[in-house]
Amino acid sequence: MLRLEPRPQPSRWWSLASPVLALLITVVIGVILFSALGKDPVRGLQVFFVEPLRNAYAISELLVKATPLLIIALGLAVCFRSNVWNIGAEGQYIIGAVLASGVALQAGPGTGPWIVGAVLLAGVAGGMLWAGITALLRDRFSANEILVSLMLVYVAVQVLNYLVYGPWKDPQGYNFPQTKTFEKVAQMPRLMDGSRVNIGLVMALAGVAAVWVFLFRTRAGYAQTVGGLAPAAARYAGFSSRRALWTALLLSGGAAGLAGALEVAGPIGQLTPYVPAGYGFAAIIVAFVGRLHPVGIVFSALLMSMFYIGGELAQSRLGLPKSITGVFQGLLLFALLACDTLIAYRVRFGKA
After folding, report:
1. Whole-angstrom distance, CA of residue 90 vs CA of residue 96
2. Which helix (H) or strand (E) holds 292?
3. pLDDT tens sequence across 157-191
4. d(CA 67, CA 59)
């Protein structure tokens, strides 16, 4: 009989091996899924895991997708390590994009390059503002941050729709719900010609180093981690739980808002109703697959961006629905949750 036996202490080896095993399980289930849908499993896996890496342009597009996922997941890692469950990064991403667009729309032919910095700061401010609402309600009224942050996502979507269908709608846009295209000076500088990769990638990699230093080399980061693992010990040590709450939510909100600013002023170039691409929700999976560690999040962001690109290719080349991307994301998350059981338990065979 199969049974689970508690380990004396969590397995460090399985904490690293669990995401790899979860990915293998996802691949196996993906093969079964492709076969059930009447598609060639080998071709399906090729579309998801080979095509996004086939040449330099494909890799550049992979980096474009990975950039917002990486930035948002870094902020969420700080939150989750602090035992603050910010599930509404998608809403903070949207509001960041909205405020950044408001600044970008002010640019004219005579505007200087300084507008790029203003656009980014507006995005960060928007994300922090939206996350601050959750922090305020949690701090003052003990509201559940999971529900509050999640519900604010739908409020953010309505704010976005109001603007692109109303006052910010491009009068020369043939009645499409979108703003005018931002001036070139207000768009993110690209790193190379012929590629959509922009300075957001550099900022994301700098964020990896900054979050690593914050979490593992500063007193404030140590206070965040201790507050999440052992709140009583944190209070005994004099660490403020309120400060940890506000720090975690404002930092993660600012990161999500920055990702929104980079997206609308980068690859998109305007504000549209399609800005909510699910990055805020996918980044939750990215953060956990990366074990809430900045370096691990880099690899999980690349993996998740492969799922996004593979899902788009599967629609055009295999005739599969758009939801195939979400299916693979969900499979990876549930496989990871199942495999994480092995961190605290070992499998034993024998009599009950």
Report:
1. 10
2. none
3. 999 999 999 999 999 988 899 999 999 999 999 99
4. 12
Reduced to 3 states, what is the DSSP secondary structure of residue 231? helix
CA distance 71 to 287: 10
pLDDT value, residue 223: 87
Burial 287-322 (b: 16+ CB within 10 A, else e): bbbbbbbbebbbbbbbbbbbbbbbbbbbbeebebee
CA atoms 324, 74, 92, 112: torsion sign: negative
- Backbone phi and psi for residue 6, each to the nearest 5 degrees, phi listed first: -60, 140
Give the span between the Cα atoms of 230 and 247, in whole angstroms.
17
> How far is 67 from 200, CA to CA, in rounded Å?
7
pLDDT at residue 351 greater than cutoff 70:
no
Structure tokens at 283: 């980044």
Q: How large a percentage of the chain has pLDDT more than 70?
A: 99
Residue 183 DSSP symbol: P
Tally of CB atoms within 10 A around 58? 14
Q: Is 283 in contact with 153 (CB distance < 8 Å)?
A: no
pTM of the model: 0.94
Largest CA distance in the chain: 79
By residue count, the chain amounts to 352
**DSSP state letter for 206:** H
Interaxial angle between packed helices 279-289 and 89-104, expressed in degrees from 0 to 180 and rounded to the nearest 10: 130
Rounded Cα distance, 180 and 155, in Å? 23
Task: Find the Cα–Cα–Cα–Cα dihedral 156, 157, 163, 164, rounded to 10°.
Answer: 150
Write down the pLDDT at residue 186.
95
Helices (H) and strands (E) in the chain, counts: 14, 2
Rounded Cα distance, 34 and 52, in Å: 18
Phi and psi of 169, rounded to 5°? -65, 135
Residues 6+ positions from 8 with CB-CB distance below 8 Å: none
Q: Are 105 and 179 in contact (CB under 8 A)?
A: yes
pLDDT of residue 235: 77
- pLDDT exceeds cutoff 90 at 231: no
**pLDDT at res. 100:** 98
Q: What percent of the chain has pLDDT over 90?
A: 78
What pLDDT score does 352 carry? 56
